[in-house]
Specification:
Elements: H1 6-23, E1 27-30, E2 40-44, E3 47-58, E4 68-69, H2 72-75, E5 80-87, E6 92-99, H3 100-106, E7 107-110, E8 113-116, H4 118-124, H5 131-134
């Protein structure tokens, strides 16, 4: 089993995230490829909220994912960050939704690049919990 390219995994993660948001009854859309801004826009209680989606894939176990790269310099204004663990055996996603403040809490600089580390993210938020998004007023 071969891993998808980063671009393929990212596009698939965005599509899976969009489908998940739609199943929650939320209106959402994907920003056009290469457009400035964030990956998804979702309407919650009449307000547009931006979501930056970061997808990483694994073949055997989620611990194969060592980081989700996040550039807070260009993407730091997103309302939410959605980290996706993609199981390539079944194409099953596990979602970790973080508020902007939570993403900043898990963010670390490493060699000038920013990352959110999965172990910290998993401790901070439960998998597949979209209540922070649904609680937006």
């Amino acid at each position: 089993m071969q891993k998808l390219s980063h671009q393929q995994a990212g596009s698939l993660g965005e599509l899976l995230a969009l489908a998940k948001l739609n199943t929650l009854g939320l209106a959402a859309y994907i920003s056009p490829e290469g457009a400035p801004g964030h990956d998804l826009i979702v309407i919650v209680n009449g307000q547009a909220k931006s979501i930056e989606v970061k997808t990483r894939q694994f073949r055997e176990r989620p611990t194969e994912i060592t980081r989700w790269p996040v550039d807070l310099g260009t993407k730091g204004e997103a309302d939410f960050f959605l980290f996706v663990e993609l199981d390539l055996r079944t194409i099953t996603p596990t979602f970790y939704l973080l508020t902007n403040a939570q993403a900043r809490e898990t963010h670390r600089l490493s060699s000038g690049l920013g990352n959110c580390y999965p172990a910290h993210v998993r401790k901070l938020v439960p998998p597949n919990d979209f209540l922070p998004l649904l609680a937006v007023t």
